[in-house]
Specification:
The chain is built from 14 helices and no strands. The protein has 278 residues and is mainly α. α2 packs antiparallel against α3.
């Protein structure tokens, strides 16, 4: 999957969002098809099927909860269903690119499904609030997702892994997450690298120049009522530079294959030049 194919998918989501939204389960189905997780050519272990059923069930619940929030005028301007959908397609692109870049004969289907499940639920019930303490909203998301996931008999180890992965999508943990993973060889079977994949997928759309401005404006609207200074900062050149340098970090083989580091560096250089002229 090339970066242009990802952009086509993200453009398609925006067309649906402003036209007729088909729903997060539909997006999940498209992503699983692109990953060829709709194929029955190879037998899968029960763990895989439990994770897949859980992803589908949680996608239905996320869609229902956030659609109700929207009906009541409470769905967040940035942390909304479009963001969930963006991260699903971004994870799909990263996983496909990691397959192409990896020396492993085949990345583990179960780990890929776990990565997809994390993105389905990572901002569940997010209402636009800013963390007042470490992992506040992330902990809320996993706590509220737990009863849904329990219905699918997921192993305790997988529930704990998902909990940790979602908790560490807190932006303040991102740099440390990358630092830990870079101490060891890449493998999707390594939870440290699975964490980095989740962090990359979470910010990938916002890191692209095609969508960075509109997503920054959405986040600004989300913060405007209670955090006016942050709202102004996030749409400023200095705010964009901070995001690219401190949060939109890319370390996986897949992100390199997609050219994300080069895109990031080009934007950073341009922003520094702009700020130096001020």
């Amino acid at each position: 999957m090339l970066i242009d194919e990802l952009k086509t998918a993200l453009d398609g989501l925006r067309s649906q969002w402003t036209g007729q939204w088909l729903g997060l389960p539909y997006v999940l189905s498209d992503c699983l098809a692109r990953l060829q997780h709709d194929s029955n050519q190879h037998p899968k272990r029960e763990r895989y099927h439990k994770l897949r059923r859980a992803a589908g069930g949680l996608a239905l619940e996320v869609e229902a909860v956030h659609a109700l929030m929207a009906h009541n005028g409470l769905e967040a301007a940035y942390h909304n269903r479009l963001h969930f959908a963006d991260t699903l397609w971004c994870m799909t692109a990263l996983l496909l690119a990691c397959r192409q870049a990896s020396v492993e004969p085949r990345l583990q289907d179960e780990q890929e499904m776990l990565a997809i499940l994390v993105m389905v639920g990572h901002d569940f019930h997010h209402d636009g609030r800013v963390n007042q303490h470490l992992m506040e909203m992330e902990n809320r998301s996993v706590t509220l997702a737990a009863p849904v996931l329990d219905q699918f008999g997921i192993a305790e180890d997988d529930l704990e892994c998902m909990k940790r992965l979602v908790q560490h999508t807190d932006p303040t943990t991102v740099a440390e997450n990358h630092s830990v993973a870079l101490q060891r060889p890449f493998s999707i079977g390594d939870q440290a690298w699975l964490q980095v994949l989740a962090n990359e997928a979470d910010v990938l759309a916002s890191s692209l120049p095609d969508y960075g401005e509109s997503l920054g404006e959405a986040l600004s609207r989300e913060w405007a009522a209670k955090h006016a200074d942050m709202a102004r900062s996030v749409i400023s050149p200095a705010g964009r530079l901070y995001f690219l340098e401190k949060v939109a970090i890319f370390s996986t083989p897949g992100s390199r294959r997609l050219g994300l580091q080069q895109l990031r560096e080009m934007q950073i250089a341009a922003l520094k030049q702009t700020l130096n002229k001020v």
